[in-house]
């Protein structure tokens, strides 16, 4: 990225975080698709490293979990048999955790929806928290065992299970959710406060992700083709969300509200996280091979 000015890098990042596809970004910014891809990879890695160090010992009190669906390479029904179950292909779920008070995105993980990734995600979150929390999740089964194995009884944990009507046969082809009936609060461990049992903020974060990343739009041809680039896009999204985007209710960024940052980051600052390339001495030129002329 040493050939791109910081201003041009910021322009490309701005286009990506506002939901443009990679190719649309390359056309608008008048750069090659390879340049956009390389910048996404570099800044995604840098954002992941920075947030991994910055989001530690957070004194959260109320935390909400959820997982959001997307797909990579192809829809699950179109995955060839030899690639079934491989994270690179088909259904992909991004696990997210948000602090209900500061709106800080505490942790995320791109993976499958099973118990292995559930436990890995919860273990990562636990390493970033300080003190006892009240945790709310939806009714997804793997949360139960994973939370118990990671936290034990050291938190106040409740599930919020939403009940929907069974769709009518003529409605099963519609691309819309079933009619909501009610939400059941189910305390699991500790003493969760009923008024604080909610997943509203993390579900609103799901909408922010779908609006800000083209890869997460349900009906799109801009879906992720490589799982690594999907992870880089998520890393960039949360870096911007936590540090550079002012929350309308808080009037500051989530990182400022959580006392992790003291100012609103600019896109140039985010681009500056990319480490300078390490220079390597040029090796010796190879000897030219003598070309023999062959006459007939």
Care to describe what's here?
With 296 residues, the protein is of the alpha/beta class. It has a single domain (6-271), classed as Nucleotidyltransferase, domain 5 (2-Layer Sandwich), CATH 3.30.420. It contains 9 helices and 6 strands, in the order αααβββαβαββαααα. A 6-stranded mixed β-sheet has the order 3-2-1-4-5-6, sandwiched between helices. Strand 2 (90-99) and strand 3 (105-111) form a beta hairpin. Helix 2 (22-29) packs across helix 3, helix 3 (33-54) crosses helix 7 (227-243) and helix 4 (115-126) runs parallel beside helix 5. The mean pLDDT is 88.
What radius of gyration results from the CA coordinates? 23 Å
Query: What portion of residues is helical?
Result: 25-40%
Based on CA inertia axes, which overall geometry fits?
Answer: globular
In CATH, the topology is named Nucleotidyltransferase, domain 5
| CATH architecture field | 2-Layer Sandwich
Query: H/E element string?
Result: HHHEEEHEHEEHHHH
CATH superfamily: Ribonuclease H-like superfamily/Ribonuclease H
- Indicate how many domains the architecture comprises: 1
Query: What is the mean pLDDT?
Result: 88
Secondary structure tally: strands: 6
Runs in which pLDDT lies below 50 for 5 or more consecutive residues are none
Report how far apart the termini are. 52 Å
Main sheet specs: 6 strands, mixed
The class by helix and strand makeup works out as: alpha/beta
Which band does the percent of strand residues land in? 15-25%
**Spatial strand arrangement across the major sheet:** 3-2-1-4-5-6
